[in-house]
Amino acid sequence: MKVPNDAKIVVADGERALFLRNGGDEELIDLRVVDHEEIDNPPTREQGTDKPGRFNDAGPGRSAVADTDWHELEKERFAHHLAERLQKLVHNKPHAKLVIVAAPKVLGEIRSALHKEVEASVIADLAKDLTNHPIDEIEKIIQAN
Q1: Which residues have CB under 8 Å from 130's CB, separation 6+?
Q2: Beta bridge partners of 11
Q3: Which end of the chain has less Cβ packing within 10 Å, N or C?
Q4: What is the pLDDT of residue 95?
Q5: 116/126 Cα distance (integer angstroms)
Q6: Residue 50: per-residue pLDDT
Q7: Contacts 24+ apart (CB under 8 A), 2-6
Q8: Half-sphere exposure of 34 toward its Cβ, with a 13 Å CA cutoff?
Q9: Across-strand partners of 134?
């Protein structure tokens, strides 16, 4: 993967994101942390306490409704928040080059929420969860792909 100088790299999962900038060049990237963001997203069992809902069937009896997975819902909201943040970044710097590295499900959520203007700025994406990796390992993985 070729990452030009001054390209913006977002490394995210459903709960945290690192915003990086390539201070090097395409041959030898040198990622620098520009910003980071993290949300508090406890497990669903700590967020929702209601019993599953029920509804009347056409026949006798009632059927259960599946519980809402609040933890997953919050991850989806965070992915949409990241897409909005990328929109602001591209709006402020129209010729920005973006690389998105995210867990596969989160990457799909981000992609679906991206504005056309942002999509045009994305030069590469990688479906991997690298948020818990040190920066030097992230550099190696990005250069190897």
Answers
A1: 11, 101, 137, 138, 141
A2: 18, 101
A3: C
A4: 87
A5: 19
A6: 58
A7: 2/26, 2/123, 2/124, 3/29, 3/97, 3/99, 3/123, 3/124, 3/142, 3/143, 4/97, 4/123, 6/97
A8: 14
A9: none
The pLDDT assigned to 76 comes to: 85
99 touches 5 (CB < 8 A): no
Domains and CATH numbers, the chain: 1-37+69-94+102-145 (3.30.420)
pLDDT of residue 43: 61
Angle at which helix 70-92 crosses helix 104-113, to 10 degrees, equals 50
pTM: 0.79
| pLDDT value, residue 14 | 83
Q: Which residues of 30-40 are buried (b: 16+ CB within 10 A; e: fewer)?
A: ebeeeeeeeee
Q: Residues in the chain with pLDDT < 50?
A: none
